[in-house]
Design goal:
Elements lengths: L5 E6 L2 E6 L10 H16 L5 E5 L4 E3 L4 H4 L4 H7 L3 H8 L5 E5 L2 E3 L1 H8 L2 E5 L3 E3 L13 H9 L1 H10 L2 E3 H6 L5 E3 L4 H13 L3 H13 L5 H15 L3 H11 L10
Parallel strand pairs: 2-3, 3-5, 4-6, 5-7, 6-8, 7-10
Antiparallel strand pairs: 1-2, 8-9
Helix pairs in contact: 1-4, 6-7, 10-11
Bound molecules: octanoyl-coenzyme A (CO8).
């Protein structure tokens, strides 16, 4: 499918989706969110793809929802269209691992989109923020919930109430991003991480994603039970057998998603 606001490339087992509205710092409009949902659904369903990278440009991952598109909408427009609701759900339903590779601005909906991915690798020029309060609105695709879980109440309140930006170093210190790398190495680092994940059993990687995400949805004891059952279930797979045999035989495992 031909997209106008994103660029999709599949190389080996990694699909890279690049947000591409350079004139608007990749602001998220309805077309981009629709195209992104489609591309993610395709990548999730593509047997060849084992990991997805979501990225933007050197200047902006995404500077938020498109203010021009939203500015003259009414409550009725937003409510009846469930603005970005379906697209939010589409991103969070992807079962394969998604890495956000963030350079430059990740603001408002851009920060929220990065947080919907499984982990964030940040360039050292990355800036995160939830500045919606400056526009007279609150975050709308998870920012108050996810940022609070990732960085704690005090910092989340600070970010949402003052609208200030957090640099990459603070984002790493706070647990929002998993690693910070020099801007020039961002894509190489994200691709190396994606290729590393692509070497694993696809089933195991998906089970890891489901299990970690349980931590945000349920109690500790229910989450641990879910994890244990998932662990037990892996013993029904050939990949468990291969992984353990390969360790004992001191060789690299050849997973076959069976
Ligand atoms: N929407 C639309 N256009 C934008 C946006 C945006 N969010 N951000 C930047 N642009 C455009 C600018 O209008 C400008 O366009 P033009 O050249 O035509 O005037 C171009 O991108 C370049 O921007 P600047 O000239 O402003 O570039 P600077 O380097 O001076 O500044 C900033 C960069 C600091 C990132 C600045 O552009 C900025 O503050 N942008 C807005 C950031 C913001 O407030 N984001 C939050 C938006 S609201 C939101 O995300 C809500 C999420 C929930 C939605 C889901 C609802 C259910």
């Amino acid at each position: 499918m031909a997209y106008e606001t994103i660029i999709v490339e599949v190389e080996d087992h990694v699909a890279t989706i690049k947000l591409n509205r350079p004139d608007a710092l990749n602001a998220l409009n309805s077309q981009l969110m629709r195209e992104l949902s489609d591309a993610l659904r395709d990548a999730d369903g593509n047997e060849k793809v084992r990991c997805i990278i979501l990225t933007g440009s050197a200047k902006a991952f995404a500077a938020g929802a498109d203010i021009k598109e939203m500015s003259d909408k009414s409550f009725v427009d937003m409510f009846l269209s469930d603005y970005f609701g379906k697209e939010h759900d589409a991103v969070t339903r992807v079962r394969k691992p998604i890495i956000a590779a963030v350079a430059g601005y990740a603001l408002g909906g851009g920060c929220e989109l990065a947080m919907m991915c499984d982990f964030i690798i940040a360039a050292d020029n990355a800036k995160f923020g939830q500045p919606e309060i400056n526009l007279g609105v609150v975050a709308g695709i998870g920012g108050t919930q996810r940022l609070t879980r990732f960085v704690g109440k005090s910092k989340a309140m600070d970010m949402h109430l003052t609208g200030r930006f957090m640099d990459a170093e603070e984002a790493e210190r706070s647990g929002l991003v998993s690693r910070v790398v020099p801007a020039k190495q961002l894509m190489a680092e994200a691709e190396a991480a994606a290729n590393k994940i692509a070497e694993k059993s696809r089933m195991t990687a998906m089970a890891v994603k489901e299990s970690v995400n349980r931590a945000f949805e349920t109690t500790m004891s229910e989450g641990i039970l879910f994890e244990r059952r998932m662990f037990h279930a892996m013993f029904a797979t050939e990949d468990q057998n291969e992984g353990m045999e390969a360790f004992l035989e001191k060789r690299t495992a050849q997973f076959r998603d069976k």
